[in-house]
UniProtKB/TrEMBL annotation:
<keyword id="KW-0175">Coiled coil</keyword>
<feature type="domain" description="Translin-associated factor X-interacting protein 1 N-terminal">
    <location>
        <begin position="111"/>
        <end position="221"/>
    </location>
</feature>
<dbReference type="InterPro" id="IPR032755">
    <property type="entry name" value="TSNAXIP1_N"/>
</dbReference>
<dbReference type="Pfam" id="PF15739">
    <property type="entry name" value="TSNAXIP1_N"/>
</dbReference>
<protein>
    <recommendedName>
        <fullName>Translin-associated factor X-interacting protein 1 N-terminal domain-containing protein</fullName>
    </recommendedName>
</protein>
<feature type="coiled-coil region">
    <location>
        <begin position="323"/>
        <end position="371"/>
    </location>
</feature>
<dbReference type="GO" id="GO:0005737">
    <property type="term" value="C:cytoplasm"/>
</dbReference>
<feature type="coiled-coil region">
    <location>
        <begin position="197"/>
        <end position="245"/>
    </location>
</feature>
Amino acid sequence: MDNEKAVVRLPSLTDRPKETHLPNADTNEIKSLVHYKMDNVIHKLPRPHILKPYIDMKTADIELWPSHASTQNCGHKLTKLTRSKSLQLITAESLGKSNFIPQPKLLENLEAYLKEELAFIDDPDEEDSNISLEVYRKTFNYLINKLKTYKHLLSRIKMQYEMALDDLESQIISLKPLKETVVSTAKIYEKKIIEFNEQVKPDIKAVKNQNSELEEEIELMKEKLVQIEEERKEAEEKLKDAYQLFRDEYDAQQLLSIEYKELSILQSGTQSPSDFNKPEEPTEDLTTLKIALSQSVEDADATQAKLDQMIANYADVVPRRQYETLEKKYAEMKENNETLSKDFSILKAEHKALQDVNQELTVEMTNYMNEYTSKKKKLARPPWVKPCQFINPENNYFEGISSQNICENLLDILRNMDKNGARILKKESVYFDGKGLSEDVPKYLRYEGQVYNRQFNKCDCALLIKDIWRRRIKNFRKGSSFADFVDNCLNEIFPIPIMKTEWTYNLVEACKIFAGTNKNIELFWLILNGEMDENIYHYQLSVIKDLMNFLHRSLPSHNVMTRTEFHQHLQNFLNSNDPNIISSLVNKALEEQEAEEDINFDQLFLEDDEGEVGPFLTEFKNWLHSLRMEFFELVSKEIDEESQVSIQNLDLAIRQTDPTLKTYAVKELLCWCFRTTPEMLLRTKPLLGKDILLRLRNANIRFSQIKTSS
């Protein structure tokens, strides 16, 4: 192949060579194959379906190399029939062919290029890493340009990596000043440490020298102490020997003196040997006795003084035996104290660990309590025993089933009770007995016979009461009886007498059942029975309406306020000296709207079909009730329950309690308490104090501090 060009002839890829049995079949086969001629020699190539032409133009096919390049090529296996009529497997290895698939040329060229370029990089510092990264980038760009089918995907991958590298490089550049600062700071502190070590080095050396000198002195003192101890022991031995010698000499002298006396007595013959051992009678010399007496007195005085001094100095000294006993007890107590100290240290460590655990449990409990409180606010239920007082005080059935059923069953029972009242706990009769036609029976209940029990639920009762109040507000006339109005109103709603009677009796029965669980029903029931002033209801509505109008006048353009603005407007309207009630009303408003700052005050004055209001108006009504009760408590201190109270006495007590009350408000209170009209007020007789207070407790009070239109 000097300068000759290889001629390659490619046949049609779709045409397949036809098999033939003609003599020139080999020539046709050669023509149908891909081949080239070189030096008059025909070189055959594999068939087109094996070469897979135009594979680079297809999509969704990826070359499997190198995932299988290292594996053996087991695809071409032949079998042949031996002379013994058995099949023999012929592999590529037996034919002398390689059993491994070589790498593609592109991969080999890329790896060779990388090795050559990376061989110039010796030290992998920052600059060389950038150079090597550039080499890999060029290689990857070349690969992208070659793989045209995957060029779009690989370009996107490259772009993402380039963006990540740019971000990292920007972070490195931003951290370089910090790195220089750290290096400079480290150098400064290293220099300071070296200077400090240089400054301290002479002091350390002097201390070491002084320490060595003191150690030498200690060694000398120890040697001297050993010598002194040896000398002391030798002196004690010598003293002991000298004392023993002295005792021997003294005893010998005593014996010699006794023998001398015996011999002298025996020689004189005046005494017998038996009288020798008798003590000599002292000669009584008066002068000697006086001297001895005076000396004895002096010795006695000195001894007494010494004794007094000893008593004064050693009065608190304990005996040696007692001291040894105390010392032994002290040692035992000291040992016990050490044991207790060790136990205390262990308990202290355990206590600290328990405190940590307790703190963790406290935090966990706080989280659970917060979660419990939030869930409880969303679904608040009273304890199972508490509903008994609202159901039927005379019926102990619920108390019995509350200990025998699970919460789910009790909840179903309470739901039915809330819907239908306490009737589910007792058997209701199908009919009511009429109250009769006497004058003692209220006008709206006068009926003889049986009345059908419709078994009102709370919703039916509340809806009917709301309709009655709506008609009452529309046709309200002072001085008219509320019971008579209810009778007329029911006649208008139910023109048929039997229907009116049924609804009236069922309304009364429902009010008895639900009065303990619903404030609106309770207020209606007390007013209907004449136990509470009807003006309380109208005054509440008037104050609420005036509050809404006051807020609208404060912000005529819109109906949204901030928390601070709402607080200020409430303070201006109520004129209350108690800051807690204003804060409580603001918090209830935020709680009702589930807001933190802005309050839409129009939504605070809405009520549902049953006349129920939100937390804000409920808190506002409770505040009005607390004002009435506070006023009642102050007036009751001025009234004696057991004495007769006249109109003048009650008027004086009311005006002393609140001088700001207007005249018509005081007159309204007096008329209600004495059950009379303004015309008959001056001719009313005194009543018992406790009856007056009972009426005053349920009377309406128009407080002048609130900016109302009434």
